[in-house]
Amino acid sequence: MTKRRIVPFVALTVVLLVFFLYQSTTVRDTVRQLPQHVGLGDHLQDEEPLDNAGGELSGGKPKDPDYKEWNPRPDFKKGSRLEPGHNYTSTLIIAKTKDEDVDWMQRELPDQDTALWVADDPTAPLHSPKNKGHEVMTYLSWIIDNYDTLPDVSIFMHAHQYTWHNDDILGNNAAQMIKRLSRQRVWREGFVNMRCSWFPGCPDWMHPGETTENVYKQEEVLLAKSWSELFPLDPVPSVLAQPCCAQFALSRERIQAKPHAQYVWYREWLFSTKLPDFLSGRIWEYVWQFVFTGENVVCPSEHVCFCDQYGACFGGQDEFHKFIERKNELSDRERDLREWEDKGKAIQEAKEEGRLNEAEQLEKPEPGKDKEFKKEIERLRPIVDTLKSEAFKRGDDPKNRAKEAGREWHDGDDF
Q1: What is the pLDDT of residues 123-132, one digit of tens each?
Q2: What are the structural domain ranges in the chain?
Q3: Which region ranges are annotated with the description Disordered (predicted)?
Q4: Alpha carbon distances (Å) from 406 to 295, 304, 307, 315
Q5: Rounded-to-integer distance, Cα 248 and Cα 292, Å
Q6: At 136, which helix (H) or strand (E)?
Q7: I want to staple 43 with a disulfide (CB 3.0 to 4.6 A). Which of 143, 228, 355, 372 is the partner?
């Protein structure tokens, strides 16, 4: 073949080869972008491979780095036995902004050791290295800084005293939760959620393989990729669940079951992730239980949690459910009364402001219904209050707590 004929042939071959490679890349990228559920155990990876991190060559190909050397699987055990009457030390770690009022802690918890971390004030005595990830940055930073001098029990909470996600059996009151928290239970279990009520969060909440965004769980579609970055040795679970909302307590032994470097690694992920602040924080809300128990679902029985953790012992699951039914019934009637009163107020305000036509169009409260609601409230409230009071009295006996929790108990045992 002459040189003149070879040149067009070679050129055509090169063009076809480039076209083939382009098509292959395009198809691959298209497939990667198609919505698909992440299979259990699958990890999502970035387009560019990670550095070999010191992995050796085998047959000309880099081996995976030995993750087990820097990400050892912890051996989570029940707390070691301490003598009855042991004086448990504890520290309350609070994640706050500079504008949040925490005076209630000194007023309600004068003897509680506290560590108030301010996320948005670099001049504060205790402050986060970066205002990112909501409470996650504070929690991890405190563990990193205090790893070698931990108290028996570390309690991680938000700054507000009253909020909906504090259990209403305890008056939605953080001070009551902290006062009544059984340090003994924290030591035994290693990790406890400060919230006992399952909703929201249990028993089946986040699904890391989901690809359709849920406006109420915006972080759900991001969990699989974040999981593979945080826990490269662990398969992506089908579900993540624990009671909300990132408030929990840990024993010293449980924190130290993982090496100090592991917490530094977690915080480095928080520093480097491109996720927005609120999403990176919410990612962690449903992985804390995995970090400290190795379980993707941690939903202890509500009645056991209230009894063994806070001393509200209703006598068993059936008795607890009966209490919840009465409490919900009371809440429903209180809501009905508020709605009835709001209708009357709306009409009165419209009349006072001269909006007479609008006042005529507004829904009118049914005459006499308020008396019915008040009568039911007066009947139900003492029932609920009595059941709650009896539960706390029952919980004063450590034997009752052990019985309801299914724990073995001997004379002289502690709570």
Answers
A1: 999 999 999 9
A2: 90-300, 317-395
A3: 42-84, 348-375, 389-415
A4: 21, 9, 11, 12
A5: 11
A6: helix 135-146
A7: 228
